Amino acid sequence: MRVLENLDVATMVEGGAPYGLIPDGAIVLDGTQVAWVGPQAELPSDWQGCERVDLGGRLVTPALIDCHTHLVFAGSRVREFEMRLNGASYEEIARAGGGILSTVIGTREASEAELLRDALSRADALIAEGVSTVEVKSGYGLDVETELKMLRVARQIPQHRDLSVTCTFLGAHAVPKGMNAEVYLEDVCLPALRQAHAEGLVDAVDGFCEGIAFDADQMRKVFAVARELGLPVKLHSDQLSNIGGAQVVEDFAALSADHVEYIDEAGVECLKRAGAVATLLPGAFYFLKEQQRPPVDLFRKHGVPMALATDWNPGSSPLGSLLLTMNMGCTLFGMTPAEALAGTTRIAAQALGFTDRGVVAEGMRADLAVWDAEHPAELSFHIGFNRLHSRIHGGRID
Ligand code: DI6
Ligand code: FE
């Protein structure tokens, strides 16, 4: 038992004060869990005699959660950045065999050890900002062997770092060169999903529902197999155009619809009925210089919760900062700082199907971030100035 004291805590519990803020609070840790949180003056006497940790008046929040990343990959797409700045579009580059397919070549060639080394250095950047849970996707293999290799690498990250990692199968990310989409799905993607699941490598299934990738009916085929295997689904939907992804999200009760810049009101209603989270990814919006913002007002109007994530990937969002993502959620998309922090804590947990983290409350995992900040809005305010003091993962203080 340990008592954290002399702190303010933004519990992010819904319904009470903004941010669930408790000034002059205390938090009791029991091993890997939070046993109690409240005003320090009300600390129950049972715990008065426990070991005390003085946090010097700092701010405590739930540890951050990055619920959408592609951080296992190899190869560089910096040339494409130059091409785009010279006028080529993301879609033109993709159709010419660049884009995702160029990362596929690099990822196939890389060894598991090389992929792990680079993934760990990316994970370190997130950990340094108070991140404690990260979702990592496959999708740069597009063959059975490499899809499994990526997932095995993602699974190994927690053996090397104090970080929770959830692994998402994204075989339906792009159609490999020289193959037709239907044949790829039947002969490669679905067998890879079954095999990866059999090896315990899959926590959820994702797809890219887009003109340059897979259409809604093709995604339904993939999600039907996910359902058969008992795996939750989520979808890259309405990023560059609207081809009906939100209806797929509703039909399969997906955890989240991600990107959603081009979603319309009927689509937002699909998310509402599905109980899905809208995961906003301002890094890709910014880096691709997109113009169409996700309809934040419609999500608010219909009560669809919004998560925020880095979408860290080598092509459309080379963004290794969840704090900067929060700032972008506010400045580019018009979210409030309270929505941004909920989007990287409570709602991000919901987007991953977790009920044991994302808020500071009794019985939750002791995943906390301690900040040199006076107010939780500061986390969305600074640009490239990390105020993390320390991080607590599963009750262990870094
Ligand atoms: N949408 C994205 O933003 C990433 N994947 C996807 O389906 C981009 C992937 C890439 O360009 O490498
Ligand atoms: Fe993505």
At a glance:
With 398 residues, the chain is an alpha/beta fold. It has 15 helices and 15 strands.
The CATH class designation of the largest domain is Alpha Beta
Count the E strands: 15
CATH superfamily of the largest domain: Metal-dependent hydrolases
The residue fraction in helices comes out at 25-40%
Give the helices and strands as they follow along the chain: EEEEEHHHHEHEHEHEHEHEHHEHHHEHEE
Explain the layout of strands and helices.
Elements: E1 2-10, E2 21-30, E3 33-39, E4 51-62, E5 64-66, H1 78-85, H2 90-95, H3 100-109, H4 112-127, E6 131-137, H5 144-160, E7 164-172, H6 181-198, E8 204-209, H7 216-229, E9 235-237, H8 245-251, E10 256-259, H9 265-274, E11 277-280, H10 282-287, H11 296-302, E12 306-308, H12 322-331, H13 337-343, H14 346-351, E13 368-371, H15 378-381, E14 388-393, E15 396-397
Parallel strand pairs: 1-4, 5-6, 6-7, 7-8, 8-9, 9-10, 10-11, 11-12
Antiparallel strand pairs: 1-2, 2-3, 4-13, 13-14, 14-15
Bound molecules: 3-[(4S)-2,5-dioxoimidazolidin-4-yl]propanoic acid (DI6) and fe (iii) ion (FE).
